[in-house]
Amino acid sequence: MNLADKPIGVLVLAALIVVLSISAVVVGIQFLSFLLTPMPFSDKLYTVMLSLVGIGTGGFGIYIAKGLWDLKPWARTTAMLLLGFAFIGSVGGALMGKPAPIVVVLLSMFFIVYLIRPEVKSRFSRT
């Protein structure tokens, strides 16, 4: 399947996930630099754990984006689930008028509605 056969919204979502995932990996790697500063062992352990979560989350995001790019049904389902979590997690901040949560709520709603449209859902092949 070539690029022209893929829904543009799915490609935009995959690209957005890649950008966010790369940032999570970069932040995770940056956290490792804090290990060079003197701190108690418990703080070092916490720093390593945060770093691994950032790197792991970013890697998982890139995997999901690749699945969306390849129009895999599992990636569509996973993306909708994670978008739902992002929506729920941002509603409080959005109701308080904070700009970033408002953007997250709007984008997650848009992409969930987009991904459940029959013409988009039908593009995800069963392999």
Beta-strand content estimate: under 5%
- Helix count equals 5
Instruction: Return residue spans where pLDDT drops below 50 for at least 5 consecutive residues.
Output: none
Query: How many domains, as an integer?
Result: 1
- How many β-strand stretches? 0
Structural class: mainly alpha
Order of helices and strands: HHHHH
Query: Judging from the principal axes of the Cα atoms, what is the shape?
Result: globular
Helical fraction? over 70%
Radius of gyration computed on alpha carbons: 17 Å
- Arithmetic mean of pLDDT: 93
Distance between the termini: 13 Å
* Biggest β-sheet strands, sense, barrel: none
Q: Can you tell me about this structure?
A:
It is a single chain. With 127 residues, this protein is an all-alpha fold. The chain has one domain (3-121). It is 79% helix and 0% strand. The chain is built from five helices and no strands. It has helices at 8-33, 41-69, 73-95, 99-116, 118-121.
Features:
single chain; 127 residues; mainly alpha
Produce a short descriptive summary.
Helices cover 79% and strands 0% of the residues.
Topology:
Blueprint: H1 8-33, H2 41-69, H3 73-95, H4 99-116, H5 118-121
